[in-house]
Amino acid sequence: MRSLGHDIIRILYIDDERENLNAFKAAFRREFEIYTVQSAFEAHRILQEVSIHVIIADQRMPNCTGVEFFGTILERFPDPIRILITGYIDSETLIEAINSGRIYRFLRKPWDELELRNTIYNAYNSYQTAKQLKQNIEELEKTNNELSRFIYSMSHDLRSPLMSILGIVKLANLEQSVTDPNGYLDIIAQSVHKLDAYILKVIEYYQNSKAEVVNECIDFECFVNGLLEEFKPQNNGINYRLDVEQSANFKGDHFHIAVIFNNLISNAVKYQRTEESSQQINISIKADEIKAVISIVDNGIGILNEHLDQIFKLFFRAKNTRRTGTGIGLYIVKDALNKIGGSISVQSIINEGTKFEISIPNRVIEGVKLCV
Amino acid sequence: MRIMLVDDSKIDLFLAERMIKLSGISNHIIACSSASDSLDYIRKNAHLNEMLPQLILLDIHMPEMDGFEFLAELIRFPLAVSQQMNVIMLTSSVDIKDQTMADANPIVTKLIKKPLDTDELRLVLDSLKCV
């Protein structure tokens, strides 16, 4: 079937026999833009100058076969659709044609005009589809990239004046130069910190989605203790317990695993119950040569049952608390786990606490270098 | 100690100057609102040791010439000039790339985050004296 509204189809026909070329031209010259050549050399010249949609080649030519010819142009001119015309075909040629020449169709010689015409139109449609698909992918990648770059640079640009505000508040406190009996400066600082926390999460989201997975050795005891050091000063009332059983060398991606721990621990810190006298965060890690199973348990406010399957969605915020989050943290956790092939599950009882259980595969088997 | 501040934000320049003076770390501040202003100053005073800063607090993201481009220019001065200056980067950036580049740069002592914390600055300066 002829498709409507297309450009004129440009065809390159290569055959060492002039009569074949002439016959083809005579049959189709009113319908298509036709270039006929007798050698691979001429064919290359045409391909450089004209954007060809469909190439038809005769298999039997004295200097190189049609399949060989297709093989030579594939890398430089991958887009035109390739049709091979051949009087006979053995399985050897067939295999080669498919594997190295990427032939779209075979046509028997002498060709039937109707069949050839249909084949040309189909080939052209296929050319257009491939081209459209390529364009769409390019555009998608471009907009995706621009979008993340936009988010990233915007976050940074927002941060800089925010830090100036924080600096000014600090200076005002230091100089005692502002009469502030009601503590408004502190409220400003609190709001700025809150806004900054949000911006930092957005940046973290971007970094997490862009970061490539690099597998390095991990000593969980040392790794998690290092992360916990950052949290301890924030809230002295919380008792941390870390239990590590690491029976094998472990390899994993430091960046993503740190992102996972940091988000889950910071949630455990944030959603404690203020009335609880012994606030507790227990982390236990069991790592062997296959995987690491990590559980992070708190005795905080808990998560409503009906929220459990939604907490990993972007911008989801629970309603049983006044402490509003960004709705990004657990999404980043899930995203990071996807990147390193891990999984997560959660159990929670309201007003008793929450338990996250994570499984991360050990990449030590795939690594060539051994951990020392 | 002579401290040079390089930052395109007028507010941040003012802040850093005020904080450093208040903390008693230094009273001799050279404030530059662009990397090229700073380079001009160093060029002009290259032979006057007592005019050159001993410490540069350098912002990263600036129009025209950013902090790292500035460092590339600074390194081209004669050793007598560039070696007596310590550079601390002062930025609100949390870009991992900025951190990595700062760590890798031989002239940079440390990258510290805005807003400037003079206690933190003092710690870095103390560590410099030990070296």
Number of helices of chain B: 6
Distance between the first and last residues' Cα of chain A: 66 Å
Strand portion of chain B:
15-25%
Oligomer: heterodimer
Mean pLDDT level of chain A: 90
Largest β-sheet summary of chain B: 5 strands, parallel
Q: Give the low-pLDDT segments of chain A.
A: none
Number of strands of chain A: 12
Structural class of chain B: alpha/beta
Which stretches of chain B of 5+ consecutive residues score pLDDT under 50?
A: none
The total of beta strands of chain B comes to 5
H/I helix tally of chain A: 9
Q: Write the H/E string of chain A, N to C.
A: EHEHEHEHEHHEHEEHEEHEE
Please tell me how large the radius of gyration of chain A is. 33 Å
Report the principal-axis shape of chain A: elongated
Spatial strand sequence of the major β-sheet of chain A: 2-1-3-4-5
Helix content of chain A: 40-55%
Backbone shape of chain B: globular
